[in-house]
């Protein structure tokens, strides 16, 4: 069971003086990770000053692949890293427990920069400062590396100097201010009970000087910690004032910020009141590339109008059980899975989530490979194996790559069964071969780019049973129609023409 670490910025018991008159109260400190102590030291040194488009309702941002080339000549290293990280992220999405409303621990799923993701640049502050963010529909808080003393532990990624990571500098922005504890936006993170999140403020007080508790975000491969700001989010021709954003001063394995696009109140779509957002993901190459596509944000209503050529399926109502963490996910109803025209008979309990969020399918831009619960994965892989019975399994490659189903291909042409996902309403996503099988370097081996955990499938899944990752979304135009509560897609080449 995770320990709770409570960090409060406010006036009261003084453990650590800050230059602007704020102090920290620490509870459960012996249970806290060691780097929380570094966080306190860093905070003591920080002071604050208190793409264009003709349609004003449309904002278009460049969207870049964020795949870090591994520092290894091992041809399997990139896929092994992606597979391992996808499984790790799936475990945290599936078993993600939200902190109690009285706690200052925020547990938000995220992922390291070391495997395939996609990034956008956003500008905050006055004058604006540009920061890079990983696009993540599986979490909600937007945060960036912050202050000149940002510390990133275990961030030895290729082409990244952990001692020279670009950061947001609050003192250089005239619009930057700490979030007050009684501000309703503090409740986005810590719940509506003001007294629980502001223990040093007297009930009904009008002059509470305590700030919103600092956040500590923990995820599978690392963590980040900092405090909350209100800041201007600056787009060409549009400024979003008093945007809630996290100022992280300490992270592990996270040299880039996160742009949370989930369903939480603190997410970018919620704070901006977006009606729709859409993207088209360029192909993964597992290397660094300057190519990019577009992320489109729509603030104006389109009524019930559909985008040309898109197939739609309704978003499911999020589970209403005890695990409120699942409320940030985008659930869709997957009805059927086909391999080569043959329907894979997946038990109903994996396709339909119960009230606690066990089972069902979510869409997640932050996962690389699609994750399937072991019982589901085995059914799908078995059907592929049946239809590819003339080819031998490459089990040595499976062990090296971390992927569960690979086979040797001959030096002649071969036919791979089509893979189709059919959603509620009849919308069918038939994936191109590159979205579900990958050649491993120069070897004559193909591997299924769907992952699962290594254990036997449980009788009843915990959390979402299927997580549709970004690898399977490549070269599809993807739309999240928030106004009409539906998910749309169509096949499309995402690479911009020269």
TrEMBL record:
Under the heading SUPFAM superfamilies, the entry gives: Acid proteases (SSF50630)
Entry protein name = Peptidase A1 domain-containing protein
Alphabetically sorted, this entry's keywords are: Aspartyl protease, Glycoprotein, Hydrolase, Protease
Annotated GO molecular function terms are: aspartic-type endopeptidase activity
Q: Which residues form the active site?
A: 136, 364
Which PANTHER family does this one have? OS07G0603500 PROTEIN-RELATED, PEPTIDASE A1 DOMAIN-CONTAINING PROTEIN
The record's Gene Ontology biological-process terms are: proteolysis
Look up and give the organism this protein is from.
Answer: Canavalia gladiata (Sword bean)
């Amino acid at each position: 069971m995770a320990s709770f670490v409570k960090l409060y910025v406010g006036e009261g018991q003084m453990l650590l003086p800050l230059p602007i008159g704020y102090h920290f109260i620490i509870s459960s400190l012996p249970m806290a990770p060691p780097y929380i102590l570094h966080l306190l030291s860093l905070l003591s040194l920080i002071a604050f000053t208190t793409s264009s488009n003709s349609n004003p309702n449309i904002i278009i941002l460049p969207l870049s692949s964020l795949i870090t080339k591994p520092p290894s000549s091992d041809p399997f290293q990139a896929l092994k890293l992606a597979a391992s990280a996808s499984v790790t992220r799936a475990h945290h999405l599936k078993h993600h427990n939200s902190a109690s409303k009285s706690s200052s621990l925020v547990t938000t799923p995220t992922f390291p920069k070391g495997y395939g993701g996609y990034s956008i640049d956003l500008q905050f502050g006055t004058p604006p400062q540009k920061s890079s963010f990983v696009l993540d529909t599986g979490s909600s808080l937007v945060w960036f590396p912050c202050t000149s003393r940002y510390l990133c532990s275990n961030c030895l990624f290729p082409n990244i100097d952990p001692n020279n990571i670009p950061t947001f500098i609050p003192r250089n922005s005239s619009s930057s201010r700490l979030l007050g504890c009684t501000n309703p936006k503090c409740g986005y993170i810590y719940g509506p009970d003001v007294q629980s999140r502001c223990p040093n403020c007297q009930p009904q007080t009008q002059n509470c000087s305590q700030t919103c508790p600092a956040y500590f975000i923990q995820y599978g491969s690392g963590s980040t910690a900092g405090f909350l700001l209100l800041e201007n989010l600056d787009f060409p021709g549009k400024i979003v004032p008093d945007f809630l954003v996290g100022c992280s001063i300490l992270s592990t394995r996270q040299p880039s910020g996160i742009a949370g696009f989930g369903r939480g109140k603190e997410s970018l779509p919620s704070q901006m009141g977006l009606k729709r957002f859409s993207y088209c993901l360029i192909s993964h190459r597992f290397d660094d590339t300057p190519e990019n596509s577009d992320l489109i944000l729509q603030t104006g209503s389109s009524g019930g109008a559909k985008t040309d050529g898109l197939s739609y399926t309704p978003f499911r109502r999020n589970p209403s059980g005890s695990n409120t963490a699942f409320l940030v996910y985008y659930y869709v109803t997957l009805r059927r899975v086909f391999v080569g025209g043959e329907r894979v008979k997946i038990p109903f309990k994996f396709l339909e989530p119960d009230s606690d969020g066990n089972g069902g399918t979510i869409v997640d831009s932050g996962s690389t490979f699609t994750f399937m619960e072991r019982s589901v994965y085995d059914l799908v892989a078995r059907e592929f194996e049946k239809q590819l019975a003339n080819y031998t399994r490459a089990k040595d490659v499976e062990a090296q790559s971390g992927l569960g189903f690979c086979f040797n291909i001959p030096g002649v042409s071969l036919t791979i069964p089509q893979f189709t996902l059919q959603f509620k309403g009849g919308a069918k996503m038939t994936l191109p071969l590159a979205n579900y099988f990958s050649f491993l370097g120069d070897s004559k081996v193909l591997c299924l780019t769907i992952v699962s955990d290594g254990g036997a499938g449980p009788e009843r899944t915990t959390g979402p049973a299927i997580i549709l990752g970004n690898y399977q979304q490549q070269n599809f135009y993807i739309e999240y129609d928030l106004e009409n509560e539906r998910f749309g897609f169509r096949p499309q080449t995402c690479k911009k023409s020269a």
